[in-house]
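Troubleshooting log. The previous structure file for this entry was overwritten by mistake, so regenerating from the original sequence record. Sequence copied from the archived sheet and checked twice against the printout by T.R.
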Amino acid sequence: MFAFIIRRITQAIFVMLVISVIGFAIKQSVGDPVREITGISVSVAERDALRDKLGLNDPFPVQWFRFVKGALHGDLGNSFKYKRPAVQVILSKAPATLELVLTTSILVVLLSIPIGIYAAIHSKSWWARLAMGGSIIGVSIPVFLTAILLIYVFAVWLQWLPSFGRGELVEIFPGWKSGFFTWSGLAHLFLPTISLTSIMLPLFIRLIRAEMTETLQTEYVKYARARGLKENRILYVHAFKNTLLPVITVGGVQLGTLIAFTILTETVFQWGGMGSMFIKAVEDADTSLMVAYLVFVGLIFVVVNTVVDVIYGYVNPMIRTGGGK
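Regenerated output below.
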């Protein structure tokens, strides 16, 4: 198991290096941050001097090596727009995004498991067919289109819910303001959460249904029925436990994807999280903040997937033997 963990950590480090290289490659083609900082009234000589001061004229390998060296000490550079460390800017926006991802994840788990199991057990029922048909629609519609439709129905037409912002916030501890503890915050959270859920829920419903259907056809389930075990125990203890193994793996991957999808959702609802911050950084050519965001999100994605791989290795010993004894 130790060798398995070392392999996964080595792979995670390699992936992070690749992400940093891709981030810097994008940085070179986005725009000139000096022009956005200084405006049009500053002379070319002054711009060149500022560019030299910021290290933007250095060769690509030099800039990348300097970034990696700083990242090892927790420094992802300084934001040109906010005039402060990029890590501080990201962490100030992270609570909004993490709350959105957390509520979406909880809602997906609470809905996908019972619906997926029901669709597998009662595959010919009208409700199962409705759920599977709805899942196809959910996968097909882009998340931003769902968000706009929800705003039109619930905010413009019915006027039940707010269409933008986070509402009234309460400071839980320094640097973390949450809307979980106010009615206004929960009302503002509802539509963005439903929008994100609409793109993730169909995937997990179909995955759980497919895995549960396959598990119910295995020999050990047939043997359990032959022994006379209660049907509920067979379904919800033996079969469902094995169904969860691939779901855990896909769930880890989709958690990182979910964070990426918040860019569109936060933009539509003006949520004020990391996603909308990234869009603003692109508009302002704040390349340092862009690279820091890509590395930060990539780090979350890599850490979550590495932890999931390790957990999966404990649950399923066959995974650990893939690279040797």
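The radius of gyration is 24 Å. Archived copy saved in two places this time.
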